[in-house]
Amino acid sequence: MNSLTEPPQQHLDDSFFDRDAQIVAQELLGTVIRHCVDGLWLSARIIETEAYYVDEKASHSSLGFSPSRRAMFMPAGHLYLYYSRGGDSLNFSVQGEGNAVCIKAGYPWVDLLSCEESIERMRTNSPAAAGGPRPLTRLCSGQTLLCKALGLTVTEWNAQRMDPTRLRVDDIGARPDIVQTTRLGIPTGRDEHLPYRFVDAGFAAHCTRNPLRRGQIEGQDYALLRRELLAG
């Protein structure tokens, strides 16, 4: 997790999301998403994202407008939640109708706002398959696990905007290096080759699937983007 020092924080507003999907996907890495449940702020550092565009086959919006997909066609900053593999998944609409960023994985976060009690609530929300506590390193390592731990559901949040008193994303000043690679679970023939997946390099071992695992070759299987160079 992290130290209990309280860094300067800024809540992300709609203008943050009103940019190209790949830029938003990269800059969400290192931010902290928080959901207030029963007075507890359940929080996770965002460590893995994927960008989607309306004109590529892997995107839900490429299938056209529908009531369930309406959030992807709404102004930037709206939440698009859908059911995936028996659980809820979180996306944000971004610049351009039909474009979005999927929040693939996080890492449990403790600071002066989100206490150890918050972590215990997250573990209660998302127990291991055998019924015991899920290891902290795997508590939010997957799009449905993240939503489950944070208590985010389609029925409550789809097509809504964030509310800083209940749900928000905080910029805590982290600027991690980024691993760029192909997205996960994209069927053959649906633009599976596009490198629209982004991972916080320092947390690669805790995301859905480690892009830096043994056998992966830089320049062939992934690219390493230095954050300071991107800022320059």
UniProtKB/TrEMBL annotation:
Pfam families: Pur_DNA_glyco (PF02245). It is an enzyme of class 3 (hydrolase). Its EC number is 3.2.2.-. GO terms for molecular function: alkylbase DNA N-glycosylase activity; DNA binding. Gene3D superfamilies: Methylpurine-DNA glycosylase (MPG). GO terms for biological process: base-excision repair. InterPro entries: Formyl_transferase-like_C_sf (IPR011034), MPG (IPR003180), MPG_sf (IPR036995). Keywords: DNA damage, DNA repair, Glycosidase, Hydrolase. NCBIfam families: PRK00802.1-5. PANTHER family: DNA-3-METHYLADENINE GLYCOSYLASE. Belongs to the DNA glycosylase MPG family. This is Putative 3-methyladenine DNA glycosylase. It comes from Stutzerimonas zhaodongensis. The lineage of its organism: Bacteria, Pseudomonadati, Pseudomonadota, Gammaproteobacteria, Pseudomonadales.
